[in-house]
Amino acid sequence: MKRASIVLSVSLLLAAIAIPACGWEFSLTGEMEVRYRYFARTGGADLFGVANPSAHGYNDGAIGLAGYYGGANQVYAQGFSAKGADAAVNDYRIWLYPEFRINNAIRLRGEYWVTGGNVRGSYDGPGYGPYGGIAGGPYPTNPWYVNRGQQGWYQNPAPTGLKNGMGTGLWEKFWLTAQTPWGLIVLGRRGLEFGLGWSMAHESDSDAEMVGLIVPYGSLKFLLFQQLYDNNWINPNGSQVLAPSASITGGMFPAALAAPTDQNGTRDMNGAWAITYRSGDLDTGTCARYVFYRNVHCYSIANPGVAPVPAGPNRADDASNSIVPFLFSGTGLSGAPTYSDVNIWQQIYYTRYFNGRFFFNGEYVMNVAEVARKGGRPISGWQDAWMIELGAICGPAKLSLANFYKSGHDRRGGYLNTTAPLGRTATGIFVMDRYNEFMVFGGSNEAIKPYNFLMGIYGGGNNGYDARGLAWYTDFLAYATRLDYAVAANLNVFGTFIYATRASNTSTAIGQNRGGVSNAMYRVHPGFNSAGTVQTAAVPNVPDNYLGWEANLGADWKLLEGLNLHCLFAFWQPGDWFKWAYVDYSDATTTVVGGTAYPVNPHRGIDPLVGFQTSVVVGF
What highest taxon heads this organism's lineage (predicted)? Predict the structure, then answer.
């Protein structure tokens, strides 16, 4: 019996060793970053005028400090400070990157923002905490709250001692990869990465939810992606359905949002195909993407007292807010819907080369748009963007030279309108049949981030922000250089310089940027409506494209293993473009162009802006 027990025990032990484990594995990496930012104007001349107490000014005589307003994704007068000339913000983030290895073929990966949304403190959003902004409390909503929540940063300070939490978590990405005999299958939301990321596809700036198949073949890699479902892209539930209305006796009025499953007015096709080659010093590839909208339209029924409501079944679906129907197939508050077939072809080419001493990075992207508008004028556009970066490494020094470009609009005739059915607006203004500004289907912040700071904070001047409040540099041309020097193995110092202009000579109307101030009473612009949001008359183009220059100094210091300190000082001298494009609120000076007086002063000065950022990053 004892011998049998020993034999059985040994047999079970051998069986346990021989049988492969069926459990899954888990690993976790992450980052915590604590950041402090400071912004200041070096003199009294702001982007929106001179801070002169004796002048009329805006908001009881104060100019303040112009800055980014997160709720509207634009630069506001007094956006950083109502009366002063400086501003500061202290925030931090905690981002986690989990990985679940189910077996040798299947993995789940994610990106979780512990600080996904701020829920306490005087910087909270509406309805949160004791100072709930618009929803309650005596303090107004902080301008950064929308931007902060979408970026995954928590903003300090909060009222000391309150135990109501600091933030709500947010799954920013989560996706599946499965290795099969015919290639790697990718499902779920993940970072979109292809090329250098200047135009649309940087992992840190863009996400994608397409179904993907990646097939490696030696040094080649073939990629195929397809979007299976379109949820009206920009504004989910953008279409409207019939709902009871007290204003219409015994009737129904289209006022309620439709279900997100409604596929009317959405994309019929959204796919991408790519090939890359990587071997030794060279990495190159190309990607083609085709987007097709069939018979889409956009009609505003928000104001039935002004606009005629379409009859019949059109009442239920003519308010699609998908971005492409909105751009090309909407008629605003007058006329009937314009039905369109929209074709967009995108092509990316990129090359990376590095032989240990010299490097070259290049990317060229073109967008071709063809809009067949039924019963209306056709619209087309050729938009392009490029980035070129080259340089050399010599001992502890690295020199980089770069050029960035994105095409801008053509406002020939002083007006831009892509929805007028017959080439003229309701007021009889002639409009172009071209859409030339590069359409960014993602972000661009990371690619140019090593070369500038303040220009990005101010959205490139023309409010070019993505949904997270980061700059994507539309209508932009810049030349930049950067010098890095490794003082020690754990310390790098650098200096950068960038010179920037608008890419198009006909892209911006004089006095177009009002900084969030109504056009109804003070410094009235004759070419816009009372809200300052809709152009009502032809306005000449800004005659100067110069955005200014920026110089930065910084250091990256590895204090301990996994603990890094980053410091940056930035100095930006805004260019003359701002004097024409931004309304001057400091006095009543006007500039007459073509017989019309506009509320700008091209002879005023604009003092340089400075910025400082320091952050401590812990990686684990």
Answer: Bacteria
Q: Indicate the pairing of strand 154-156 with strand 591-593.
A: unpaired
Task: Read off the tokens for 601.
Answer: 């002063």
Residue 8 lies in a domain: no
How many folded domains does the chain comprise? Answer: 1
Tell me the pLDDT band of 11, cut-offs 50, 70 and 90.
low
Residue 444 burial (C-beta neighbours within 10 Å; 0-12, 13-18, 19+): buried
Can you tell me whether residue 451 is helix, strand or coil? helix
Q: Is residue 514 part of a domain?
A: yes
Q: What is the helix (H) or strand (E) element at residue 398, kind and residue range?
A: strand 397-406
Three-state DSSP class for residue 2: helix
Spatial CA neighbour of 366 closest among 432, 436, 466, 278: 436
- Would the pLDDT of 1 be above 80? no
Instruction: Check if the beta carbon of residue 466 is closer than 8 Å to that of residue 371.
Output: no
Confidence of residue 429 (pLDDT cuts 50, 70, 90): confident
Alpha-carbon Rg for the chain, nearest whole angstrom, is 27
pLDDT band at 301 (very low <50, low <70, confident <90, very high): very low
- Given a contact cutoff of 8 angstroms between Cβ atoms, the answer to whether 92 and 32 are in contact is yes
Q: Which domain holds residue 420?
A: 287-594
Q: Is residue 311 part of a domain?
A: yes
Element (H, E) at 41: strand 25-41
The secondary structure of 480-531 as a DSSP string is: EEEEEEEEETTEEEEEEEEEEE-S-TTS-BTT-B-TT--SSSSS--TTB-TT
Report if residue 131 sits inside a domain: no
Structure tokens at 135: 């929803």
Which of 220-234, 399-413, 418-432, 547-561 is most confident?
A: 547-561
Instruction: For residue 66, give the nearest of 91, 45, 94 by alpha carbon.
Output: 45
pTM score of the predicted model: 0.86
139 has a pLDDT exceeding 80: no
Residue 474 φ then ψ, to 5°? -80, 150
